[in-house]
Fold:
Amino acid sequence: MIEKPDKLNLDFSTSPTVWKFLKDDSFVRGLIGPVGSGKSYASCAEVFKRAVQQKPSPRDGVRYSRFVVVRNSYPMLKTTTIKTWLELFPENIWGGLHWSPPIKHHLKLPARGNASGIDCEVIFLALDQPKDTRKLLSLELTGAFVNEARELPKAVIDGLSHRVGRYPSMADGGCTWRGIWMDSNPCDDDHWMYKLAEKEKPKGKFAWRFYRQPGGVLEVPLKDVPKEIPEAQGYISAGGRWFKTNPKAENLHNLPDGYYDQLLGGKNLDWVRCYAEGKYTYVQEGRPVWPEYDDSTMSADLEVDENIPVQVGLDFGLTPSAVFAQKMPNGAWHVLHEIVTFDMGLDRFVNLLKSEMAIRFPKNNEFMVWGDPAGASREGIYEQTSFEFLKTNGILARPTATNDFKVRREAVAMPMNRLIQGKPGFLVNRKCLRLRKSLSGGYHFTRVAVGAGQERFRDKPNKNEHSHVGDSLGYCLLGGGEMRRMTRGTKTFSQPVVAQTDFNVFA
Structure:
């Protein structure tokens, strides 16, 4: 029998934020911080801490518990989450993992003197496969740890909230504590985690509490940066700014010398803000569908012109969306409003669409509605096409000439490349947050390989929560006139043109 360690060090008192986080008994807790802050390590330790605190079973005196550790994909689960887990609970001491999905690790300690025995079952699940999501809905758990929560939808947390507190059974004394905890790098200000951490802040018996760790680095104003070899004095240049390691950063004593200096090399400013400073920001992943878009110059406060037709682009499916725009007399496009939904049927979406048209554009009489030509196929549930369903409900919509992605992409890119009266030929209302994020890189081509000095990306963009509103924009501009502009022919001549007057080109 393998002898277990006499003592497992779970003292995180040198990291004040982590220490407060671990002592909190709230139903849902979040720990947000930069890379290298020790948040994942502490969250793994929390599993065993709660197992030790579980009251013994009245049947046999053993402390029974069961936890699930959740990550967005199996590659990330195996290379990061489980790697951290095994630093705390190595297989040569605690026994081997069951590596076939769902991956499990069963931690057992026999009773010692007055100390009760421990039976802690830990299940590792990745939610990149539908079957694993279904497994989550049938688990009987004590608690759950969500690793890198920003990479998962809030629905995962909601689902887990119904599964925790179900183990052990009342025959074994029931749960001493139940709940969910998560760790994450910072998200952007449109993320569900940001809204719950900074705005809504659920209170009461089942409160949600979030803890923000200090940044790993601090930005230094240019005037305070030494002129002579600042790098030799601990200053770090990244993203066009200067930084210095934050002396209040947590877990520094466990990091190698120059950790953040090395980490920041070659990184853009948004990456540094998120992963090193620990600030809420959007970090672009992959290659944007529209690299032509510049949010700083192409977003503005826009008003509706009551005398100009409103062009509406629709994307159908389970996540229908709409974009409203006007083509101004000078040829510029003004994108005014967006509708973004999730898991909404066509009937509910049509009602929402009609409501938004009436509220947002009460004095506009002319709407030109465009949609994906695929919407001309029959929907089994309605026994009619999406366009027929819209017409039945009072909205006359037309399919665009094509749904070819490259054509839709160009239809949006073309006005972005125009300069009209000193302004971009494409402007988006600042209030269209989802669309702006989509244009800024939320809708992107996924990186698949790096080699021979080049990055390689998939041929088709990643379908995610940002893609649908981007597709709606494409249909809007394509139907609203950019298709005609793209296909406008030029006169050709079947016979060579012969000059009627002889002349000397060198004269």
Summary: Residues 489-507 have pLDDT under 50 and may be disordered. Residues 120 and 442 are 40 Å apart (CA to CA). DSSP finds 15 helices and 25 strands in the chain. The radius of gyration is 29 Å.
